[in-house]
Design brief:
This protein is mainly β. It has 1 helix and 6 strands, in the order E-E-E-H-E-E-E. Strand 5 and strand 6 form a beta hairpin.
């Protein structure tokens, strides 16, 4: 599963909003679509497994599926 480091403020409750260069990587390089899963990390020690909800030109929205301590 693909992993991306994101700023902590991109993670709000059970939602993750991704912007910037990661959008290009996820959309155009990896060709991920709604329903696909990825892991985000915010340097706090947690891995957050997400499922993509929407993939737009400048923004990707994902729903948190589960959280676990990275190890």
């Amino acid at each position: 599963m693909h992993r991306f480091f994101v700023p902590p403020d991109w993670i709000q409750d059970n939602a993750v909003t991704i912007t910037g260069p990661q959008v290009h990587q996820i959309d155009h390089v990896l060709r991920m679509r709604p329903g696909d899963e990825l892991i985000v990390l915010d340097n706090s020690g947690w891995e957050i497994q997400t499922r993509l909800i929407s993939v737009e030109r400048d923004t990707i929205r994902a729903e948190v599926q589960r959280r676990r301590l990275a190890g």
